[in-house]
Amino acid sequence: MSALIFRLRNVPEDEAADVRALLDEHDIEWYETTAGNWGIAMPALWVQHDEQKSRARQLIEAYQHERGERLRREQDERKAAGIEPGLFDRIKERPLACAGIILFCGFIVYVTLSPFLRLISTTRG
What we know:
By secondary structure, this protein is mostly helical. Helices cover 63% and strands 10% of the residues.
C-alpha cells in the first residue's frame, strides 16, 4: 500500500528536486501527485511500499536538517558581509505594499476594538 512521505505544497522547486533525486539515489520507489487542475488536491511524494516509508522519512529528515543548517549558514555569511537586506531595506523595496499592510492591520484592530470602546463610552455616560 502507498504511503505519504513528503508534502509538496509551498516547497521550493529546488528542494523538491533534491528530495526526488535523494529517493532515486537510494532506490526508493516513489510517485508524485499534483495539485490538480484547480489546485485543491494535495501535491506530494508517496512511496510504493509501506516498508520503505521509514527509510524514506529518515533520508528526507536528514536532508532537511542539513539544508536548514546550510541555508542558515549562508544567511549568516550574507549578514556578516552586509549584503543581507534588513527590515528597512525590504520596506524601501516595496513602500506602498508595506503601507497598505500596515493600514489594513490598523483597520482590523479598529474594527475589532470599536464595539468594545463604544460599549465602554455608553456605560460611563
